[in-house]
Write a structure and sequence with these properties.
Elements lengths: L10 E5 L28 H13 L4 E5 L9 H9 L6 E6 L4 H11 L3 E5 L5 H8 L4 H14 L3 E8 L8 H10 L3 E6 L18 H6 L4 E2 L8 E4 L7 E4 L12 E4 L4 E3 L8 E2 L5 H13 L26
Parallel strand pairs: 1-2, 1-10, 2-3, 3-4, 4-5, 5-6, 6-9
Antiparallel strand pairs: 7-8, 8-9, 10-11, 11-12
Helix pairs in contact: 1-8, 2-3, 3-5
Bound molecules: S-adenosylmethionine (SAM).
The site of S-adenosylmethionine (SAM) has 21 residues, from strand 3 and strand 5.
Length: 317
């Protein structure tokens, strides 16, 4: 579907749960989320119905996210059923990786082609700090499990945080030489609950170019990242700059939250509920919401926080 600004909307990010086994400081509150009533959340059948309706309108790429999608008991079934929907050509999962040792193979067998694993630091102490409870070794085991399971692509997502991990840019980038991995550096977005972070934490992705002058620009792959490569590396380095240089003009995404709210823009409070609708109702609501997708997400920086009205774990990133 083409929206009012000529953007071809092909990409749905489906959050399957708000719950997570970690508590990343920029993503969710320390005490987790207030568990919503079961009947407020989309059922597996409703999720699949929504993906079918979205596919009928031109969605070809599906990303499963959360919360932590791998804490969802029926995650393999959701992926398997979504992969069989006509029109869906690619299913990706974004995860913190800690449950991949058990789930990488079942997800690959269910039809997931790519996984993105969030990893902001290679230091066990800092990992515990930023996730408020996680063990780095579990995430690292998950990365190895993903590499062994034979996904078409394994990417690491690192949120750049000034004064926290900017000193680790070279070490994170170096992983692309040692492993067949891509690394994406993502600018920290000022969400509702990311008040731990002052202005100094919001650093632009261009810092990566300053730290790694040997990076060579490579052709874009159709995504929102500006791509580079270290000489001799197996994987690419991508810079994703939603704050310093927004890519709204090329945004081809819509998001569906675990409680059934369709968000045409990550940083807008506009939401369209699909909960309780049948296939035709969902298709019509998705169509309407695409036609209401705003041209851009508005100013976003330490002083202008996201107007999403939710933290990232309740949207899906
Ligand atoms: N639990 C999964 C994970 O850790 O990847 C999936 C959900 S998480 C919300 C999806 C992505 O959003 C992660 O890569 C995370 O780092 C990113 N994210 C969350 N809050 C963010 C923020 N304030 N700014 C930038 N990225 C953020």
């Amino acid at each position: 579907m083409i929206d009012r600004y000529g953007r071809d909307i092909r990409y749905l990010r489906l959050s399957v749960t708000e719950l997570c086994n970690l508590r990343c400081r920029y993503c969710m509150p320390a005490d987790g989320v207030c568990k919503k009533a079961h009947d407020e959340m989309l059922t597996e059948d409703e999720m699949i119905c929504a993906v079918r309706a979205a596919a009928s309108l031109g969605i070809t790429k599906l990303r499963i996210t959360g919360g932590e999608p791998l804490v969802k008991k029926n995650i393999a079934s959701i992926c398997r059923r979504a992969a069989q929907i006509p029109g869906i050509r690619e299913i990706c999962v974004t995860t913190n990786g800690t449950l991949l040792p058990e789930l990488a193979k079942p997800l690959r067998e269910a039809g997931v082609s790519r996984v993105n694993i969030s990893l902001d630091t290679l230091d066990a102490e800092k990992f515990r700090y930023i996730t408020r409870r996680g063990e780095l070794s579990q995430a690292v085991d998950g990365i190895h499990a993903a590499l062994d399971a034979g996904f078409e692509k394994v990417k690491l997502n690192a949120v750049l945080i000034g004064g926290f991990n900017d000193d680790e840019i070279p070490a994170l980038a170096e992983l692309t030489r040692r492993y067949p991995l891509d690394v994406r550096f993502i600018e920290l977005m000022p969400m509702v609950d990311s008040r731990d972070f002052g202005p100094e934490a919001f650093i632009p992705c261009t810092v990566v170019l300053d730290k790694l002058p040997e990076l060579q620009a490579v052709e874009p792959d159709g995504g929102v990242a500006k791509l580079y490569r270290l000489p001799g590396a197996q994987g690419s380095i991508g810079l994703i700059s939603p704050v310093s240089s927004h890519f709204c003009r090329d945004c081809n995404r819509i998001r569906l939250t675990a409680d059934g709210k369709l968000k045409p823009c990550l940083h807008s409070g506009d939401e369209y509920s699909l909960k309780g609708l049948d296939y035709d109702g969902m298709a019509e609501k998705i169509r309407q919401s695409i036609l209401c997708k705003p041209s851009w997400h508005g100013a976003l920086d330490a002083a202008n926080r996201s107007r999403a009205g939710r933290d990232m774990n309740q949207i899906g990133g």
